[in-house]
Amino acid sequence: MSLKEQADQLLSAAVADGAVPGVVALATNAEGTYYEGGFGERIQGDGVEMTPDTVVWLASMTKAITGAAAMQLVEQGKLDLDEPASQVLPELAERQVLEGFDDAGQPVLRPAKGEITLRQLLTHTGGFVYDLWNSDFVRYFELTETPGILSCMNAALDIPLAFDPGSRWDYGIGIDWAGKMLEAASGQSLGAYFLDNLFAPLGMDSTAFRLTDEMRGRMAKVHARLGEREFELQMELEIPQEPEFEMGGGGLYSTIGDYAKFVRMILNKGAADGQQVLKSETVEMMSVNQMGDCRVSLLKSAVPASSNDAEFFPGLEKSWGLSFMIMEQDAPTGRPAGSLSWAGLANSFYWIDPKNGIGGVYATQIIPFADSKSLPLAESFESIVYQNL
């Protein structure tokens, strides 16, 4: 069977079995998309097909775009990877580390050792975490009535660190702070900067923080898994459309086709339609380990409704670039060491394989993250792509 036949069969069978309400996926090389498919429904039960042009919440697939934008400003000398980030954002100076809680249940804080840098923010080594995978921060948020990050309220960013900058890796809101640095250095809002410097040059006309009426008309909604084949529609789950800050860590909406344009720009070493969006040497730097001896580790769920325990290819060594996860060993799907990837909370995934010159984008709209059906389906799709190289 051809790639199209195999992939169509895999994805359509998952929908027919009730494993996912709807799914879209594609494979691309440096020249263009060579497989694209959409199956199921955008909203379970409404009869509207989940076509490849369906608008989905990218969630943390936004991070790679923010990383690329930040590196444009590094190229221009407007940002520096290793100077204290507080030189751009004074509020990042003298951060506190949450040590735990005292006998009265109050947070115990101490001054952080060392300054936070942009490189650390882009590699998740700056000390910031998400409460979803840290029970101490779930407790801290409740005690202090701190809003969650999806509120897009500035107060959601004003939290302590979980560890000293540069001492280890842990996944968190650092890239939202990087987005704030980008705004300060460019004088533009994040959305305006992205549009002028990435989306317009790449032809990404269905990607934005703020949904147009036309985008909303093609939008899939997030479904919460209740059982093997049972879902509950999360109609209210939408990124605020008049936010206090545009969330560089997870606020974008897009389509798999638009995201593939970004993937191809990375595969083409920063080139797109005859123009150089990033220098080739910048893309090479972004695509290798930028956090020394630190390594990516298991994300242990502290909020089961939002995420399961999450780790891609457990047991294999993984590092972080600017800003992608990097496989340091070959993956069982066929993806080789040196490949780049990450994901979004609603079980969307991408990978970029510079060695073979291919990439893939896959999206469902299901929570919790690391879904028991959607993640294995994404890996099976990836395996089929590699079997057909």
Task: Describe the protein.
By secondary structure, this protein is of the alpha+beta class. The chain has 2 domains: 3-61 and 207-387, DD-peptidase/beta-lactamase superfamily (Beta-lactamase, 3-Layer(aba) Sandwich), CATH 3.40.710.10; 75-183, no CATH class. Helix content is 28%, strand content 17%. The protein has 10 helices and 16 strands. It has helices spanning 3-16, 62-75, 118-123, 135-144, 174-186, 190-202, 213-216, 256-267, 280-286, 374-387, and strands at residues 22-29, 33-40, 56-57, 96-101, 107-111, 223-225, 231-233, 253-254, 271-272, 275-276, 318-320, 325-327, 340-344, 348-353, 358-363, 366-367. Strand 11 (318-320) and strand 12 (325-327) form a beta hairpin. The longest helix is centred in the first third of the chain and has 14 residues, at 3-16.
Can you give keywords for this protein?
Beta-lactamase; 389 residues; 17% strand; seven-stranded antiparallel β-sheet; three-stranded mixed β-sheet; single chain
Poorly predicted residue ranges: none
Which whole number gives the mean pLDDT?
98
**Radius of gyration from the alpha-carbon trace, in angstroms:** 20 Å
Shape: globular
Task: Give the percentage of residues in beta strands.
Answer: 15-25%
Question: Helical element count?
Answer: 10
Q: Alpha-carbon distance between the termini?
A: 13 Å
Overall structural domain count: 2
Please tell me the CATH architecture of the largest domain by its name.
Answer: 3-Layer(aba) Sandwich
Largest sheet: 7 strands, antiparallel
- CATH topology type of the largest domain: Beta-lactamase
Order of helices and strands: HEEEHEEHHHHHEEEHEEHEEEEEEH
Helical coverage, percent range: 25-40%
Q: How many β-strands, per DSSP? A: 16
CATH superfamily of the largest domain: DD-peptidase/beta-lactamase superfamily
